[in-house]
Amino acid sequence: MKRILPVLLFVLALIPVAAHAELRVDVTRGTIEPMPIAISPFSGSGADANLALEMPKVISNNLAGSGLFKPVNPAAFVQDAASIQRDGVRFAEWRATNTQALVTGTVTSLPDGKARVEFRLWDVFGQKQLIGMAYTTTQQNWRRIAHIISDEIYKNLTGEDGYFDSRIVYVSETGPATKRVKRLAIMDQDGANHKYLTDGGSLVLTPRFSPTRQQVAYMSYEGRAPRVYLYDLASGRRQILGDFPGMTFAPRFSPDGNKVVMSLAQNGNTDVYVLDLGSRTKKRLTENPGIDTAPSYSPDGARIAFESDRGGSQQIYTMNADGSNVQRITFDKGRYGNPVWSPRSDLIAFTRQYQGQFYIGVIRPDGSGERLITNAYHVEGPSWSPNGRVLTYFKESPGSGSARTARVYTIDITGYNERKLGTPQDGSDPAWSPLNAN
Amino acid sequence: MINRTMIDDDFLGLDSSMKAPVVTSAILHIILFIVTAFGIPFIARDHEILSQPISIEIVPIDELTQTNRVATPVKPKEEKKELPPPVQEKPSPPKMAEETPPEIEKPKPPELKEEVKEKPVEQLAPPKPEKKKEEVKPKEKPKPKPDTTKVEKKKEQDFDSLLKNLTPDTEEEQPVESVETAENSAVDSAIAQLSDRLTMSEMDALRHQLQGCWNLGASAGGKYAEELIVAVRVQINKDRTVQNAAVVDMGRYQRDNAFRAAAEAALRALRNPRCTPLAVPPDKYNTWKNTIINFDPSDML
């Protein structure tokens, strides 16, 4: 037996191992097109019929506005709300129309006057439900619910948080250039629910949303010197931020909402300061004879991007939150300014002036990957959507009088899908809010 | 008187003291001559010309060539300002091979917790069949086998290629050919029998078909979207319909939202009517019945 074993092993070793045949295919190209999604009318009768009709329109508008989805024309729907309710989703028929995702829902009035809204997102090709949620709220809140549903759909299909349940505060402008009236105004990100916050008695500039509270910091010429104010959206009350001896401007909140960084111009020198909102203590972060301004925190609060002309031309720098470890990140021709750190931390948006044109661009925090995504005679003031996917900014046309217009736009960070927001008058300096708190 | 001279000894007229060295010298010269003429056998052996091993790698041509591959990114230059990609026209209504339909679903609103909250969020379970049963989730994918295939991350971010850039002086980056993965898979499958292989055109047909069904629209521009490489293990029926498609890295699918969305997009490609049935040669069932498809967007984004 002992002799046989080695022989046996030797023979076995000679037998080739059977090939494990599993075909491998690398698919390295695909199509880039908006995903076809059908947003079916919600079912709801009587008093609910109107909501059942309107909510899908808001959702559809949101998703189409993102540029990532293509709502299917309702004329091509293979089932109506009643049919879906009765027979269920007939996947094969929807699939034949190349619909990849389907949204269905119902609206029901409750005895206490509230509305209960259910929605379901279906994967048509996979023939399964991806998500189903129900919300109960007062009837007036229906637009918000539609935005929340849009965010759920967006998140489920893209893997990123949405941005639809958010607002944009901006400076509304009217009147001739020499006597411009500027008022703070706020609206939903889709332009609905527009309202003015200030009366236009004094000039306002650079509003910024608090990342955690319903508060807006902005600069106003109210009083003798321009100062940074804090406006509370719930109460409508406002207060001066910090007791600084000179002119303060360009405020921006820290990610935790507890601090505000801003610029202070004093004795011909401008530096960056941070103000603790709780203790009201202030600290100087830059000490340089040049102009240091437009500070913006990184989402983790560890770094601050700002613009400075200390190197001769106006460029973008970053530093630690305590002012140490300053690094320059832009080196190209022209003037760079207005850096704004993306909430998803991968990019910093900025404005660049070069050869008589303004550009909005993005760059990685280490200074690599600079990309200019839109340009015009005058574009400025980029602000990120809460998910870091879209930028809002304003664009001004040349000319004077009525020929001159300033409008608020949004653009996808790919550089495509630029859209004008519907503001009643001219608008500038938009600032995107974080997602509304529930 | 005879004068005796010793001719023998007086060789060449040299005197006897010179004889020995001359003989030695002659012998050495003869040896030298022989060596020159015929070489020294044991030295010659060392100088034998060694045959250099020439490595031959058998690489199937179908893995490397892709004749009908969409010409690699003619990158959008500045002038290409108009909006995103053209929308593809609708596919001709396909005849569908129903793939393992899940349970019949009827939209009887499922039991939802009827709590009334101001901004309440209730998770709705998928509608259930009439009969009340235990939570039957529309589960179609079987548990995938443990993650053995490591989807290797390739070159650093080629992130910006699809994204608009108006910078006047941006230097055009050379598109990187995706030969690396092709090589890897070539080596992997080199053991398979040549006759069982898909030919170049057969492989291209399948790739080309899947490219048309794989829509990256929702993930382009996402954070690190180019790193979302999804490997899907597909079991294919004899009629070339997909019997089962499962994401290989189920762990990442569970914990990473972005990857889950990318994986769903890959699965949608396989369920797309335009990709049913799959463009594989019917007579090579054994070759393609188990296939791993790697959806790799890193060249595109």
CATH class of one domain in chain B: Alpha Beta
Q: Which secondary-structure class do the elements of chain B indicate?
A: alpha+beta
Share in β-strands of chain B: 5-15%
Any guess at the CATH architecture of one domain in chain B?
2-Layer Sandwich
- Number of strand elements of chain B: 4
Give the name of the CATH architecture of the largest domain in chain A. 6 Propeller
What's the overall geometry of chain B?
elongated
How many independent structural domains of chain A? 2
Overall helicity of chain B: 25-40%
CATH topology of one domain in chain B: Fusion Protein Consisting Of Minor Coat Protein, Glycine Rich Linker, Tola, And A His Tag, Chain: A, Domain 2
Regions with little confidence, pLDDT below 50 for 5+ residues of chain A: 14-19
Greatest interface: A-B, 84 and 103 residues
Low-pLDDT ranges of chain B: 7-11, 61-119, 129-160, 170-192
Q: Approximately what portion of the residues of chain A adopt beta-strand conformation?
A: 35-45%
Q: Output the CATH homologous superfamily of the largest domain in chain A.
A: TolB, C-terminal domain
Instruction: Report the strand count of chain A.
Output: 30
How is the main sheet of chain A built? Answer: 5 strands, mixed
Q: Specify Rg of chain B, calculated over alpha carbons.
A: 39 Å
What does this structure look like?
The complex is a heterodimer of chains A (438) and B (301). By secondary structure, chain A is mainly beta. Chain A folds into 2 domains: 35-158, TolB, N-terminal domain (Rossmann fold, 3-Layer(aba) Sandwich); 167-432, Neuraminidase. Chain A is 13% helix and 42% strand. Chain A is built from 5 helices and 30 strands. In chain A, the strands form 7 sheets. A 5-stranded mixed sheet of chain A has the order 3-2-4-5-6, covered by helices on one side. Chain A has a 4-stranded antiparallel sheet with strand order 9-8-7-30, with no helix packed on it. Chain A has a 4-stranded antiparallel sheet with strand order 10-11-12-13, with no helix packed on it. Among the domains of chain B are: 11-46, no CATH class; 62-72 and 141-166 and 178-301, 2-Layer Sandwich (Fusion Protein Consisting Of Minor Coat Protein, Glycine Rich Linker, Tola, And A His Tag, Chain: A, Domain 2), CATH 3.30.1150. Helix content of chain B is 27%, strand content 7%. Chain B is built from 8 helices and 4 strands; from the N terminus they run H-H-H-E-H-H-E-E-H-H-H-E. Chain B has helices at residues 16-38, 41-46, 61-64, 179-188, 200-213, 250-255, 257-271, 285-288, and strands spanning 122-123, 230-236, 242-247, 290-295. In chain B, a hairpin with a 5-residue loop joins strand 2 (230-236) and strand 3 (242-247). The longest helix of chain B is centred in the first third of the chain and has 23 residues, at 16-38. Chain B is elongated, with a radius of gyration of 39 Å. The interface between A and B is large, with 84 and 103 residues. Strand 6 (128-137) of chain A pairs antiparallel with strand 1 (122-123) of chain B, so a sheet runs across the interface.
